């Protein structure tokens, strides 16, 4: 499915494609607008819907 997220650096809305198999995973993809590396976290919510959260790479986990 396609999710819209906002870049943590420049705030631009970008679309990412995720699927259930990526749930629980984290990956980094460069912003299409400002080219900085966005950390994506894919999770599954209580209703089974995928949740995509984004962080800048300087945040610690
Ligand atoms: Zn950006």
Task: Describe, in plain words, how this protein is organized in 3D.
The protein has 61 residues and is mainly beta. It has one domain. The protein is built from no helices and 5 strands. The protein has strands at 2-6, 13-17, 26-30, 37-44, 50-56. It is globular. The chain starts with a strand and ends in a 5-residue tail after the last strand. The structure holds zinc ion. Zinc ion (ZN) binds at residues 7, 9-10, 12, 31, 33-34, 36.
Provide the residue-averaged pLDDT.
92
- The helix/strand class is mainly beta
In total, the number of strands is 5
Domain count: the total is 1
Number of helices: 0
Overall, the morphology is: globular
Give the N-terminus to C-terminus distance in angstroms.
Answer: 26 Å
Trace the largest sheet across and list its strands. Answer: 3-4-5
Strand content: over 45%
Bound small molecules, which ones? zinc ion
Element pattern in H and E: EEEEE
Radius of gyration: 11 Å
* Low-pLDDT segments, ≥5 res: none
Main pleated sheet = 3 strands, antiparallel
The residue fraction in helices comes out at: under 10%
């Amino acid at each position: 499915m396609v999710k819209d997220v906002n870049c943590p650096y420049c705030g631009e809305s970008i679309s990412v494609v995720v699927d259930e198999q990526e749930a629980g995973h984290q990956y980094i993809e460069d912003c299409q607008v400002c080219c900085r590396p966005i950390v994506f976290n894919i999770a599954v919510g209580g209703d089974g819907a995928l949740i995509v959260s984004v962080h800048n790479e300087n945040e610690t986990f």
